[in-house]
Specification:
Length: about 675
């Protein structure tokens, strides 16, 4: 039994350790957004389906000896992709679908090893049951979930802070070789014992019981709902905070914890406890969607609580529906397929069919309907017909009301919306305020954060407003260099093009923008690009990748304004990123970074960045005094003494808060945004 348990533990640990590791590798190549994790989860869940499908077919159609021989072949094939080295396979093309590029990259990097790891747990459980190494194969499944949870929790707290990414990849590859040795031993034991042990005969009960079509559908839909909830909550957190392994791992750990509890023993899931908590959690979800925003800590706590309860109900009901051991691999196959369907819904289907984020409402509605259907089935069995009809009617009315509320929240339309679109990089909304008046203006919102506005009437139409208005940090940087002829200006993040209004006829502007929809909106709904007399070039793709492939640009001013919703891609604020910016900046050039954020204070980080790289820094704040001049916070970093000696800049520097305690500089290998929480 011990070799089988060790093999399952090691396979599950590797399976879930590689998920945050490989996603962190590829995150910067696709803009650092939340969708990278969602698409990666689609790959992981799809590989689980393939692995469980292979295990199911092997157990059903092959004898133990042939199963073990075939698995050895796959183990050897997996060695072809060891050691893993994703950086050598990267070829990002901004013109191509990023979802397909991520899937292709993951297949080429870890496809076969991940497939083998996915297949190992159900195969080992089936082998252990067949040769009588265990009487309860479901306990081995619980053990695999414990290993998965240990892998996930160890990554952000131990692995990521202590080791760089290359060392992590090497250590994972070495451990995978150890796993192959363990698995090969199990195949040898299974093949040997299969000659002396007769297959465990099915009991008469097993022979009679065959899962109904309804059971198969529930095996599919319950895990699909749970995964949809998982990814919806993860998206909700990361798109407004920051996309980092900790915020990927925490929801996934809660999700796995419910699997561990539910599949350990039926007594842990009690309907009398969890169904009232289920109703309470639905109310909390509605509050989070429709009520006032909570602070970061309470947002995370409430989302983790609701995710735990809803997934516990899904997985508890799933365990109650488990079949006899002779149908185990088919059961796991449907569970894996359900997970893949949930991932596909969030990462592929929803960006196509919806122009907003409504996955959480869909998942909550699905969970409600499934739970009520199971309760109705229970009522049919346990309660008399006379008493059962009123109960079922009450359940149906309650379900209809709950689903109606979620549908209404998903379909709620804002007034004066001009355009709304969703793609891989998020939801973009163009709206109009003060329609029909001389103060009318159009605005652009990414997720929940506004990314600029433009007046629709002259002369205000040509003026920079919002975060870029007179007195802002970018105004200080651009005005200082305005006397220079033929300035070279660099910008990360186009927005609606407001910053370009500071460029003159002799200036050249190079804008790095990863989202093609942003470019289309700036050209169709706003006129800053059309009105400028400067020479403007837009480079589509991730800014760091583009800059790394270019010769030094000698920018006079370099503007960093790349927030997605209220989160900034971390890879644009690391030491390696700023070293790259300096390579493209003139010796006396200026870097201006917009750091306005609801949740994070980036000033201590960028002050420390300046000290480390030999730059002077100043925080320029600008108060909001009208509907079109919004409060802003800009960090300016430069070696230009003349700029820093200006009276206004010196005054701003004197007013900078002294909050530099315990700020660790971000690097490509490690970054902790929680030290910057307001």
């Amino acid at each position: 039994m011990l070799p089988f348990a060790l093999t399952i533990f090691t396979s599950a640990f590797l399976l879930f350790q590689i998920q945050p590791l490989i996603t962190k590798f590829i995150l910067p190549w696709f803009g650092g957004g939340t969708a990278v994790w969602a698409v990666s989860m689609l790959f992981f869940q799809s590989c689980l389906v393939a692995g469980y499908g292979y295990a199911h077919l092997s157990v059903r159609y092959l004898g133990l000896q042939r199963q073990s021989q075939l698995h050895v072949v796959f183990l050897l094939l997996a060695l072809i992709q060891i050691p893993i080295s994703p950086s050598e396979l990267h070829e990002f093309d901004a013109a191509q679908n990023p979802t397909l590029q991520i899937l292709s990259l993951l297949i080429r990097t870890i496809g076969v090893p991940f497939f083998v790891l996915s297949a190992t747990a159900p195969l080992i459980q089936a082998w252990a049951s067949s040769i009588q190494a265990t009487t309860n194969p479901y306990r081995l499944y619980a053990l695999s979930n414990v290993a998965a949870l240990a892998a996930l929790l160890s990554y952000p707290f131990v692995i990521e802070p202590m080791f760089n990414r290359q060392l992590q990849a090497q250590a994972w590859s070495f451990t995978f070789v150890v796993f192959i040795a363990l698995c090969a031993y199990c195949t040898f034991v299974t093949a040997t014992r299969s000659k002396t042990y007769s297959p465990v005969p099915s009991t008469s009960v097993d022979k009679k019981i065959r899962a109904s079509i309804v059971s198969w559908l529930l095996w599919l839909m319950l895990p699909a709902t749970a995964v949809t909830l998982l990814l919806s909550v993860t998206n909700q957190l990361t798109r407004d905070l920051v996309s980092i392994p900790f915020l990927w791992v925490m929801p996934l750990s809660v999700y796995l914890l419910t699997f561990i509890i539910a599949f350990d023993n039926e007594r842990w899931y009690r309907r009398r406890l969890f169904l009232p908590l289920f109703a309470f959690s639905l109310a909390w979800i509605l509050y989070l969607l429709l009520g006032e925003a909570l602070n970061v800590t309470w947002t995370i706590i409430v989302f983790m609580f609701t995710l735990f309860v809803l997934c516990m109900v899904c997985h508890g009901e799933l365990y109650r529906l488990r079949p006899p051991a002779n149908q185990l691999t088919g059961y796991y196959l449907m569970v894996a397929l359900g997970g893949a369907l949930g991932s596909a819904l969030v990462s592929v289907l929803m960006p196509i069919i919806s122009d907003r984020y409504i996955e959480l409402q869909i998942a909550a509605s699905m969970a409600t309907i499934l739970v009520v259907l199971l309760l109705m089935k229970h009522v049919n069995v346990k309660v008399s017909l006379t008493a059962g009809i009123p109960i079922q009617l009450a359940l149906a009315i309650g379900t209809t009301f709950v689903v109606f509320v979620f549908v209404q929240s998903a379909c709620d339309e804002e007034p004066d919306i001009v355009h709304q679109a969703r793609n891989f990089y998020g939801v973009l909304t163009v709206g109009r305020d003060n329609a029909g008046t001389s103060d009318e203006f159009l605005w652009l919102r990414n997720g929940n954060s506004y990314h600029g506005a433009q007046a629709t009437t002259a002369p205000a139409k040509s003026l920079p407003i919002t975060y870029y208005s007179p007195g802002s940090g970018i105004d200080m940087a651009m005005s200082f260099s305005a006397g220079q002829r033929k300035r070279r200006l660099g910008m990360i993040g186009l927005g609606i093009g407001t910053a370009i209004s500071y460029a003159g006829a002799q200036d050249s502007v190079k804008v790095y923008e990863i989202n093609p929809d942003v470019v289309e909106i700036a050209q169709r709904h706003f006129t800053y690009l059309a009105d400028t007399t400067a020479d403007v070039k837009i480079v589509l793709g991730d800014a760091r990748l583009s800059l790394e492939n270019e010769l030094p640009q000698a920018f006079d001013v370099f503007v960093l304004d790349a927030f997605s919703s209220d989160a900034i891609p971390i890879h644009l604020l690391t030491r390696e990123a700023f070293e790259l910016y300096l390579r493209h900046l003139k010796p006396d050039g200026i870097i201006a970074v917009l750091i306005s954020s609801w949740h994070f204070d980036f000033q201590p980080l960028l002050t420390e960045m300046g000290k480390t790289l030999g730059l002077q820094s100043v925080l320029v704040t600008n108060a909001s005094n009208s509907a079109q001049q919004w409060g802003s916070r800009w960090m300016i970093l430069t070696k230009n003494d003349r700029f820093m000696s200006q009276q206004f800049i010196q005054l701003q520097k004197q007013q900078m808060p002294d909050n530099m305690s315990d700020v660790r500089l971000w690097t490509d290998d490690f970054s902790s945004p929680f030290q910057l929480l307001k």
